[in-house]
Design brief:
CATH topology of the domain at 2-40 and 369-682: Beta-clip-like
Oligomer: single chain
Largest sheet: 8 strands, mixed
Structural class: alpha+beta
Shape: globular
Number of strands: 27
Length: 715
């Protein structure tokens, strides 16, 4: 998708422009731009040059989807101390087969995690399809009144039902290992390129695929003696100089009853003798081998250990979130009788100085910082910018301006549904729907699934937010009023508790187009294929940024693939825009152009199965974009979402009430697992030097997204 500049550009008074003349009439990828570029080239070129192949516009593209046992030591278990010195270790990037040439280390980590999430959701989809087909076949068999099956048939059916699919996250790991798309496949000492202090993983599987902690279950990851020979990457680390095994990372997740964690100073209980599948208590003595011996060797050789802390996160599919808190040194170890009476090894670790401050408590425990009432929100300038239109209120905060201002002060009006210009005819003929009852489950029979390439675009996963409207005004009902407002009380309590957790539907992968169930479909409103019609399910906040104007963030954890909100505004004809006026917040509906891969867009036409009447439209499409969404004066929360060179959202076009691709809905979807209070961003899609002003000159604007690999210019 291509978007004209939004809030980051509209607040030009707070942005230092690269160009002297910061005209607000900048547009992107339209017939007008093509004309201006042609005029400029005609004026500056005295004679036509010989025809040469045109280079690919790579800048414009935005990818939216993509044990060995060690010998026992002597009985001398006296405490041992080490000096503060830490051995220097290599921080060079270990090349992965999945790392695209020229990409930065942070981009490689992001792309690897996105690939994992895609595989993970695909395997969930496979299991849903398997169960759905079994259920459909069972109902079909029951309706036919079939005779009693033989014992052999009954056994086969029961085995099919009981055959639980292997954990989808482990299947995703296996698939990426087979295809060589894991990052940093060789274990490494010290920091891992692209994973900064404070980085959050939403499963241990994510740590495995980026080469950060390569045990999906064990709390200690170490390099054994067998790693010395036969591996090029290990030879580059010169492991022959070390006494192996060496522990490279540990995960503090509170599963050992003897752990003591004081952030900078940790008492870590070694591995072994723990009832991993039960109550996590010690059931036997630990031994000084494997990872335990590796920690001792780290102490003796002054080698750092990566420390990750795990905390409960009910929204995560594993129930935890894991935060990288930096490098620690082992300063002491000893053995003692644990709480359960068995011998355990203890290791004292201290955090190395000179690292960024700890962020585990600051970032993860955001729910503790969320106000208990609207009056407690710092910098609150608007309790609910939606005016009660959305299921969940969206407050606005401003801690930057003095006095603070509100976006409503500029005459902006919040709307929930799309508005149309007078000269635009709204499609009224609903497409032929599916005949599914209740909820679409069997992709073999669902007509809408066939439009999406033979499968449903969404999968259901636990950990979402059930949105309820609630009363913004403070109220304390009397006993006589309770019966009348009991539902408001319940909604208020649900909101203050963090809303009701329920299942959430996730988009498996970005598609050129998603066909959702529409008004002619027989399925109900809770159908998984109506996910994009359910409104926002997360608690969002509009906040003022120092350099980018207004931005949007979430109070809740947002899983990858979760739809966030639709881009709402006034639907207009692109040709009728006044190019001399302010065209901020204008979004081109270029779904057709994207499907055809025009102007450097990434084509994904293979993801859908178009009806015959739409195939002709796609074939005849030109570079011009007939319709756009103007959210300058009327719009919703989506118009406040800023640009980033490394975004965490992507744009997805959808159709439901009609099948006019030129007027497709524009939806923002989470590209990554997004932690609470992380700003929501998407890539505006500008190629450098691609924006031409009314005078025919190339316009430039600085980018302040703050991404690790920021291009420094928005266009």
């Amino acid at each position: 998708m291509v978007v004209f500049y939004s809030d980051e550009q509209a607040n030009s008074s707070q942005i230092e422009m690269d160009a002297a003349d910061s005209s607000s009439t900048l547009r992107r990828t339209s017939a007008r731009i093509k004309s201006l570029e042609a005029q400029k080239e005609k004026r500056s070129t005295p004679a036509p040059a010989p025809a040469t192949p045109m280079p690919a516009k790579t800048d414009r593209k935005v990818k939216r989807r993509k044990v060995e046992k060690s010998p026992q030591l002597d009985d001398d278990l006296a405490a041992a101390d080490v000096s503060d010195a830490v051995a220097s270790v290599s921080n060079d990037v270990t090349t992965s087969t999945s790392a695209a040439a020229g990409k930065g280390v942070h981009a490689q980590v992001t792309e690897t995690l996105r690939a994992f999430n895609k595989h993970y959701l695909q395997h969930i989809q496979e299991e849903e399809n398997r169960v759905g087909r079994l259920e459909a076949d069972r109902k079909k068999s029951t309706e036919k009144g079939s005779k009693s099956k033989s014992k052999k048939e009954d056994t086969a059916e029961e085995n099919a039902k009981k055959t639980a699919a292997r954990r989808p996250d482990l299947k995703a790991i296996s698939e990426m290992m087979k295809t060589g798309t894991v990052l940093n496949p060789e274990k490494r000492i010290g920091s891992v390129p692209g994973v900064d202090v404070g980085h959050q993983f939403f499963s241990r599987a994510e740590m495995v695929v980026v080469g950060f902690h390569q045990h999906w279950l064990n709390g200690i990851d170490y390099i054994g003696k067998t790693a010395v020979s036969g591996r090029k990457a290990q030879k580059e680390l010169n492991l022959a100089q070390y006494n192996l095994p060496i522990t490279i990372s540990i995960v503090l997740s509170g599963q050992y009853e003897d752990d003591l964690d004081n952030s900078d100073d940790v008492i870590y209980t070694g591995q072994g003798g723990n009832n991993l599948l039960g109550d996590k208590r010690q059931i036997s003595d630990q031994k000084l081998e494997r990872g335990n011996l590796g920690l001792k060797h780290c102490m003796e050789q002054s080698l750092p250990v990566r420390v990750v802390r795990g905390h409960k996160c009910p929204n995560s599919y594993v129930g935890k979130v894991y935060t990288y808190d930096g490098l620690y040194k082992v300063v002491k170890y000893w053995a003692e009788k644990g709480v359960s009476g068995f011998t355990v090894y203890k290791f004292r670790l201290k955090r190395l100085e000179g690292q960024p401050p700890l962020t585990t408590k600051e970032v993860y425990f955001t729910r503790g910082r969320i106000p208990q009432s609207l009056s407690e929100i710092r910098g609150l300038v608007c309790e609910d910018i939606t005016g009660g239109l959305e299921n969940i209120p969206i407050p606005v905060t401003n801690l930057v301006d003095d006095p603070p201002i509100s976006p409503l002060g500029s005459g902006f009006v919040y709307i929930k549904d799309m508005k149309y210009s007078n000269n635009i005819s709204v499609p009224t003929i609903a497409p032929t729907g599916c005949n599914c009852q209740g909820s679409c489950m069997d992709s073999r029979l669902c007509a809408c699934a066939k439009l999406n390439g033979g499968d449903f675009p969404y999968v259901q996963r636990d950990g979402g937010i059930m949105a309820f409207p609630y009363c913004v005004a403070d109220f304390c009902p009397t006993a006589a009023e309770i019966s009348e407002v009991w539902h408001l009380i319940a909604q208020w309590l649900v909101y203050m508790a963090g809303l009701w957790l329920t299942a959430i539907d996730l988009l498996v992968e970005p598609k050129s187009l998603v066909f959702e169930c529409g008004p002619s479909c027989k399925c109900g409103p809770k159908c998984v294929n109506r996910t994009g019609q359910n409104g926002c399910r997360f608690r969002l906040e509009i906040f003022r940024t120092p350099k980018k104007g207004w931005g949007v963030r979430s109070w809740d954890y947002i899983p990858s693939g979760a739809p966030i909100c639709e881009y709402i505004g006034l639907l207009r004809r692109t040709a009728e825009l006044n190019h001399a006026a302010d065209n901020s917040y204008v979004f081109d509906i270029d779904c057709l152009q994207t499907m055809k891969g025009m102007d450097g867009r990434e084509s994904r036409l293979r993801d859908v199965s178009l009806p015959s009447h739409l195939e002709k439209i796609v074939e005849e499409v030109s570079e011009s974009v007939p319709f756009c969404i103007d959210a300058a004066q009327t719009g919703n929360v989506a118009r406040f979402i800023n640009h980033s060179c490394q975004p965490n959202l992507f744009v997805q076009c959808m159709l439901s009430t009609h099948h006019d691709i030129k007027q497709a809905k524009v939806m923002f979807v989470a590209a990554d697992n997004i932690p609470p209070l992380k700003e929501l961003t998407y890539d505006y899609g500008y190629a450098l030097d691609s924006v031409i002003g009314p005078d025919g000159k190339t316009q430039q604007m600085a980018c302040y997204c703050g991404a690790n690999e920021c291009r420094k210019r928005l266009f």
